[in-house]
Amino acid sequence: MIIKFLSKVKPFFLPIVIVFCGLFICYHYFNIKVDIPTKEYTKATIPKEIQKIPKETIAIKSIKVYNKKDISKKIKLPKDITEDEEEQVISAVKVKPHNGETSVVTTVNMETGESNTITRQEPPKLFSLKQEIEIGMRYGYTTQGKEITIYGKYSPIRIGKFHVGVYGEVNTRNVAKIMADISYKF
């Protein structure tokens, strides 16, 4: 029924459909709960293999720290750090997005008091269950003329760089499809 309606609409209807789909995508983009807190800092998780190693207490002559007022202008620090004089910032880094985990290590030079933070992106695990949802709309020309397609893709399984899921679409040519989907991401 919707397909018959869309195939008979006037050209001015296309911008309305585009705006509607754009609003729908924006609504879901900004309302989807992510498992990564983006508004606040969280304490980093210490890997299990590192937790087993005992810590040693050593004396430090002095250590170089960032001025909290200056660094707070660049990155928003939590109040419990900015208001506590005993807590000092010795390192601050940004890590590029990555499908796997990223190891972060901060060291301090005992002579100079300088700290250094290094990161390493670990390769993603071979298998993961991670929900990837994609919805969209296409407009263009085919061999039969103009066409509007609304589609969706759900990929809950990743094996290496292969993503497995379901793909569906409906278009103005009275064609609806639902298919198993396997894709490779470079």
How is this structure best described in words?
22% of the residues lie in helices and 34% in strands. With 186 residues, it is an alpha+beta fold. It folds into two domains: 2-32 and 126-184, Pantoate--beta-alanine Ligase, Chain: A,domain 2, CATH 3.30.1300; 48-121, no CATH class. It has a four-stranded antiparallel beta sheet with strand order 3-4-5-6. A hairpin with a 6-residue loop joins strand 1 (102-108) and strand 2. The radius of gyration is 26 Å and the shape is elongated. The model has no long low-confidence stretch (mean pLDDT 80).
Proportion of beta-strand residues: 25-35%
Oligomer: single chain
Helix content: 10-25%
> How many structural domains does the protein architecture include?
2
Shape: elongated
Q: What is the CATH class designation of the largest domain?
A: Alpha Beta
Sheet having the most strands? 4 strands, antiparallel
User: Which H/E pattern describes the elements?
Assistant: HHHHHEEEEEE
Spatial gap, N to C terminus: 38 Å
The side-by-side strand order for the widest beta sheet comes to 3-4-5-6
Enter the CATH topology name of the largest domain.
Pantoate--beta-alanine Ligase, Chain: A,domain 2
Give me the Rg, rounded: 26 Å
Low-pLDDT regions: none
Overall pLDDT: 80
